[in-house]
Amino acid sequence: MVRIDSKLIARAAGPALFALAVAFGPADLTPEGRKALGVTAWMIAWLITEAVPIVATSLLPLVLFPLTGVAPIRQAAAPYSNDLVFLFMAGFFLAAALEHWQSHVRVAYRLVLAVGLTGRRAVLGIMLATGFISAWISNTATAAMMYPIALAVGALFPQDRGGDNTRTSLMLGVAYAASIGGVMTMIGSPPNLVVVGAMKEMVGQSVSFAQWIGLGVPIGLLLLPLCWVILVYVCFPTGADLGANARHILTSRLAGLGPIRGGEARVVTIFGATGLAWFLRERKDLGGITIPGLVDVVPGLTDTGIGVIAAVLLFLVSGTAADGSRRPLLTWDEARRIPWDVLLFFGGGLSMADAIEKHGLTTWLAGHLEGLAGLPPVVLYLGLAITTLVLSELASNLAVAAMMMPIAVALAKTLDQPPLVLMLVAGFAASTGFMLPVATPPNTIVFGSGLISVRQMAKAGFLLDIVAIIVVVGVIALLTPIILAPTP
């Protein structure tokens, strides 16, 4: 009897898909475009099957792009030093410091005592907190803030199947709630600002802060509970319970931590100041009322800059430990244990996305939407939303949102549809990539926990992608005639 090595088959699937894409890819793509498509298929195959370690898959663009002529090595390597990579690194350093000083445990105890002692309630509490915060600050920054807290909550549950499913749901809940919360307000996610700016520039119209909330909040309020149901009842069912004596045990543990003092107090101060700086960085345009931001004082300040400042402070500032000794808030021995492979992975995903965009794959896919002419508006919205979603799974959602704006306007003119409505469809859909770690920065951050696999994220993300598209299209179809006055 011949034994089939599934790992070997999975490894062979990557090069095979590459060869098929190059040989039989769309004829109207350039040869380099078909090669970029092939490398993308190769990487996705290895990610989903976990045929090789994630680091090996992450480095494929550095090997294949120069060899196939898709991009020179300098261009292929540039995305690995994207500023978001350093924002992730800073977030991981903050998480490592919180973990060392047990600050995240304190928050976890209080959160679980407040929302309930079951896995399902803990996931819901984490998701609601993450979604609310993400509505007002960068979803990337929100995921970086909530990630260590979710880790601490997950550690409270037993090491059995129910506990494992709770931990998986907590991690994915942070990622998904950060993206969902980001669509609820105009300032919640960078793609939202791209949409509003494109409206003013391309159409001469826009939506107000209140109008955006009128669409974004219903989308968020529908998606958050649906996402929770998918996670804890469908994909990772959990009946995990901390037990009858859990409240007493957690209360005792919380009391045993004592008051916040010494090094923990300084870590919490830096963490809180970082979150506040992320919130205050951008000026807030609240429907005619503009609240100045830190960028008005320091124009070059970015979310990455704030995160790195905080990371450097962790190494510079000392604190008093429980035994009375003084030490830096974070040492290199602790810092070097962060998931460096995830940083490489995100760089590889950005390199892949850059090649996809430069060689016209996104434009090629979006260009086929003109075949929707004459169909009912809801079908048109679905086609536009699905196309945007597929692109956002493979490329930066910010880049996808920017690219889809002129396409949405052109489609509106060709198909005699209101341009603002189509731009909103594409804008909301750009934030609904839940399947792959490279789809959104929050996905990448929680993937670094090591508690979830690509297969688990794809399993839940696929269902949530379908639900998100239905919700986005349904809300826009039903509410835009009431909230907006679309101009044909």
Give the arrangement of secondary structure elements.
Blueprint lengths: L5 H19 L6 H19 L4 H5 L1 H9 L4 H5 L5 H18 L2 H13 L3 H16 L4 H17 L5 H22 L7 H14 L5 H27 L10 H12 L4 H19 L3 E3 L2 E3 L11 H14 L1 E3 L5 E3 L3 H4 L4 H19 L2 H7 L9 H18 L2 H19 L3 H11 L11 H7 L6 H30 L5
Antiparallel strand pairs: 1-2, 3-4
Helix pairs in contact: 1-2, 2-4, 2-17, 6-9, 6-15, 6-17, 7-9, 7-13, 8-9, 8-10, 8-12, 9-10, 9-22, 10-12, 10-22, 11-20, 11-21, 12-23, 14-15, 17-22, 18-20, 19-20, 19-21, 19-23, 20-21, 21-23
Protein model, in words:
There is one protein chain. The chain has a two-stranded antiparallel ribbon. Strands 3-4 form a two-stranded antiparallel sheet. A hairpin with a 2-residue loop joins strand 1 and strand 2 (289-291). It has a domain at 83-335. The protein has 23 helices and four strands. The model has no long low-confidence stretch (mean pLDDT 83). Helix 7 (103-115) crosses helix 9, helix 8 (119-134) packs antiparallel against helix 9 and helix 11 (190-203) packs antiparallel against helix 21 (419-429). It is an all-alpha fold and 488 residues long. 70% of the residues lie in helices and 2% in strands.
Summarize the structure.
By secondary structure, the protein is mainly alpha-helical. The chain has helices spanning 6-24, 31-49, 54-58, 60-68, 73-77, 83-100, 103-115, 119-134, 139-155, 161-182, 190-203, 209-235, 246-257, 262-280, 303-316, 332-335, 340-358, 361-367, 377-394, 397-415, 419-429, 441-447, 454-483; strands at residues 284-286, 289-291, 318-320, 326-328.
